Amino acid sequence: MNTSETNVTDFTKMDNLKSKIHSLSRDKSKIQNPKSKILMSYFRPSVDAMVGYVPGEQPLPGTNIIKLNTNENPYPPSPKAMEVLRNLDGEFLRRYPDPYANEFRRAISEALGVSFDWIIVGNGSDEILNVLIRACADLDRKVVYPSPTYVLYRTLSQIQPAQFIEIPYDEDFCLPIKNLVTANGAVTLIASPNSPSGHVVPIDDLRKLASSLSGVIAIDEAYVDFAEQSALTLVSEFENVIVLRTLSKGYSLAGLRLGFGIANPKLLKGLFKVKDSYNIDAIACAVGAAAMRDQVYKNECAQKVKASRTRLALKLKQLDFKVWNSQANFILVQSLQQTAEKLYLELKQKGILVRYFNQPGLDDKLRITVGTDNQNQILTDVLTKLNQA
Ligand SMILES: Cc1ncc(COP(=O)(O)O)c(C=O)c1O
Questions:
Q1: How far apart are CA 134 and CA 153, in angstroms?
Q2: Which of 32, 283, 71 minimizes the C-alpha distance to 195?
Q3: Which atom in ligand 1 lies closest to the alpha carbon of residue 127?
Q4: Scanning 12, 70, 205, 370, which has the fewest C-beta atoms within 10 Å of its C-beta?
Q5: Is the shortest distance between the CB of 150 and ligand 1 below 6 Å?
Q6: What's the pLDDT tens digit per position in 152-202?
């Protein structure tokens, strides 16, 4: 048999094998155990059972879309942070990064006036949430949160798996303190400002909660840069409170993936054990530190977003929308003229992406990120035309 014949035969065998593997993998990831012939899954039952987090659509860079669906900042990152990025030397990347991202922690400490050892940093605040649930929750140790809120809280609990309890907010988004206390979570998660509602939870309510619970209370302040209040002082009052922040929103650095948590070192101790060893890459550490040190720029952008938010909310009310008060960089609205899904699809067709949540309680509403004034104007012009159609 000559070599080329052998190759042909081998390729045919390979093709057969590939198509077998393909048909098995199509079968809901089930594989036949060759010895016992018992049908088993590749995945743990909790992973098989869950849906998985569905992020907002991310069109390809350069696509001509007005993107108001994932609460990114419409303004560019700090020019000082971009300068650090441009000047990075390749040699800097040859080594592993600092496992504690100390340069970034120092910059946070200076900017917020909190002690260095009260700070843990993560690959986005999503990672801190993940670490928190991995460190503190399981099937006997509940994750509790008011709902609707950031969908990832459920996803992370399902992955763990941890028992999770969702306590409904009322129509006015008052914190259900009594029910949250009764649920007695090992971890209680409160987003303030909340997504998708945009409301903030009064500090006194958070204080009451913290003094009534012995588990960890995470106050997720991803949108705090657009808000009139922060619960940061609670971390020095209560050992069980951690405040989470991100550079994805106020600092226009969603692509860099940087977040951080502030809490008593006694609480951080367990989280440091669970985090990945090199969770912050060297580029993120350096650029993030420069962005943190440029508070003036961040505050200027946030002021512009807040002013645009007020104008956009007013215009949407005039266009017959119910508009929830927001202290974030997005607004939750309900059209009094047509269904949210129809409106979402019509806007998408016109090149404007907003967020539609196909879930009970939210499927009649849209969450719209505040864009530049120009983007908001295009949005409201399209909505005006759709109203008239
Ligand atoms: C309430 C809330 N927390 C946390 C995050 C995640 O932020 P990061 O990009 O830092 O992971 C988001 C993202 O949209 C959010 O809405």
A1: 12
A2: 71
A3: 11
A4: 12
A5: yes
A6: 999 999 999 999 999 999 988 999 999 999 999 999 999 999 999 999 999
